[in-house]
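Researcher: Structure for this, please.
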Amino acid sequence: MTGDDALIGGVTAADAHRTIEAVWRLEAPQIIAGLTRMVGDVGLAEEFAQDALVAALEQWSESGVPPNPGAWLMVVAKRRAIDRVRRLERLEGKHQLIGYELQIRQEIAGDDLDAALDDEVGDDLLRLMFIACHPVLSAEARVALTLRLLGGLTTEEIARAFLTSESAIAQRIVRAKRTLADKHIPFEVPPEAERAARLSSVLEAIYLVFNEGYAATAGEDWMRPALCQEALRLGRVLAGLAADEPEVHGLVALMEIQTSRLAARTGPSGEPIPLLEQNRGRWDQLLIHRGFAALLRSQNRAASPGPYVLQAAIAACHARARTGQDTDWVQIAALYGALAQLMPSPVVRLNQAIAVAMTDGPAMGLERVDALTGEPAFKGYHLLPSVRGDLLVRLSRHDEARQEFERAATLTGNERERAVLLQRAAACASAARPSPGR
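Model: Predicted structure, token format:
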């Protein structure tokens, strides 16, 4: 029996390690959040939490997982923090660090494990979300830091998800933590005057994670469901912490409904299946009902719907339709019109054009799409020629459609999507070719 196969309390060491990793992913955000409140530095907090994980790997592999693993990890991490404070005090004479030691000592007095995860956990998590998604960081840094601190993912897992090198992700995270420390970003829920802007940053980071899972920008897989699940988990946590914020519930509703389609979005060989061609019997009805409930909560809390509430309402229109033909495109076009008023982005207007094409015909939709071709944001954006191709097919302009699909195929970084686009281009070439005898 190898070392990994050795039995520990009736289970193998490998099984014990997998259990520890699962516990870590679940408990890490609360632990890092609590430590950041005490030491005021998210980078240091993560180091102390990692020290606790190392201790768990050493001790739990022999003794088994304790009844309250989160509290155990928190106490060990706080003790590591005290040790670090003492070393710094001796080596550098930083007497101001004594305050940290006193605060940490108070929190682990008597080694009360159950008290180690205290009533402030919810507040700490919310603060951690706001600091990981602070607008001072780039969008890429926010996503990486969110997955690292709140998702408990390793740099290797994050790098694999976004098809970049582990060293690039590690550097991105290090720079983000250094920026937060250098700019003395406080560990707090921001004042009400700036809370809306900061919350928007948090929601954006979570939704960026979700979108990368829902339609991967590059690689061999059309989707990365694990990222969708992670973003949905973070959204649900945030909804519990900021229960009065309608946009939070709107984002959760949107992700619940879109996640319900995952099983139907690919074919037997992993090829993408368009929304209107999906087998709706494979949509997850439990997730749809959860999405409807979250949408209702968001609408009850909003004086007027925000961007995520409107996008969730659009997703709900699709979810209510038993078939693609039953879709209420008039309502969807109206919702996109309202969304375009709040977010006049080219992408929103492109989606609005698709809805108009479904209500008023492909010629009207194509007219709207053509008005967007000069948008700088669409330079290199594969979905614009892809949508044009769809509309041109409906207008029986097959040779033009072929050119659009071929152009879209050169622009996408996703191999599954490229294959589908080239298949569509080939079908258009066949349709445009004169039939024999003519």
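Researcher: Any notable elements?
Model: The two ends are 75 Å apart (CA to CA). The first helix runs from residue 13 to 39.
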